[in-house]
Design goal:
The chain is α+β, with helices and mostly antiparallel strands and 225 residues long. The protein has six helices and eight strands, in the order H-H-H-E-E-E-E-H-E-E-H-E-E-H. It has three domains: 2-48; 67-115, SH3 type barrels (Roll), CATH 2.30.30; 123-219, Alpha-Beta Plaits (2-Layer Sandwich), CATH 3.30.70.100. The termini are far apart.
């Protein structure tokens, strides 16, 4: 808004000065010359500053469509970031490790990104596991819900989205997809890591106590042929 206001003021002053001078008969030639010069100068400055103007227009686009706001958490080019500042020419993102990522606004708008805070921050984080062919998936499913009971229920909601599916099977084992609901992107990754670690520990415990293989054999245990 500030940039647009300044641009309008400059253009208004240039055009108004040229019109006033052109309306004076004695300075008619001078006024028209200044008006033409102002138009030519505007074209030259616009061409020279096209990158800056493009970034400013892109920042206006972000402000209008609200695709990203300060504080939003998003995935941009493989980085989990929080929008820290939206400037006229660049967007400042803070990565999860504390580093700052400075992105030109035009590049930020022109590239696709996932906004995890837009409208509803709740999401389902998938945990993909490969289990042995003889794995007891039902017992691991019960362990998954027990792990959810140990977490803050406000962070793992809605519970209706929590599911365990067998999505495939091949020579390496059974493919299991665990769907973990999270309501807070800031804590979702940590909860995902804890649940994955808990599931693997539970698989080892079941295998040790029941004798039923839960995890695929190690590479050295596979037959040579």
């Amino acid at each position: 808004i500030s940039a647009a206001r300044k641009a309008v003021i400059v253009i208004a002053v240039l055009v108004g000065t040229g019109v006033v001078l052109a309306s004076i008969n004695t300075l008619n030639t001078v006024g028209l010359s200044l008006l033409a010069s102002a138009g030519a100068l505007t074209l030259i400055l616009g061409f020279a500053a096209r990158e800056v103007l493009g970034n400013i227009l892109a920042s206006v686009q972000i402000a209008l469509n609200r695709s990203a706001r300060i504080g939003d958490q998003l995935m941009f080019e493989g980085h989990f970031c929080t929008v820290e500042r939206i400037h006229f020419t660049y967007v400042q993102l803070i990565i999860w490790n504390g580093n700052r990522l400075i992105v030109p606004v035009s590049h930020f708008v022109g590239d696709a990104f996932e906004n995890w805070s837009l409208e509803d921050p709740a999401m389902v984080r998938p945990i993909k596991l490969t289990l042995a062919q003889t794995a007891d998936v039902e017992q691991l499913r019960r362990a998954f819900f027990d792990l959810l009971d140990k977490e803050d229920q406000d962070d793992v909601s809605p519970r209706s989205s929590a599911k365990v599916h067998v999505t495939g099977q091949d020579v390496f084992g059974v493919k299991v997809r665990v769907e973990l609901p999270t309501s807070n992107p800031a804590t979702g990754w940590e909860i995902e890591c804890r649940v994955r670690e808990g599931l693997l520990a539970e698989a080892v415990r079941i295998e040790r106590e029941s004798g039923t293989r839960m995890l695929p054999p190690a590479q050295q245990d596979l037959p040579d042929n």
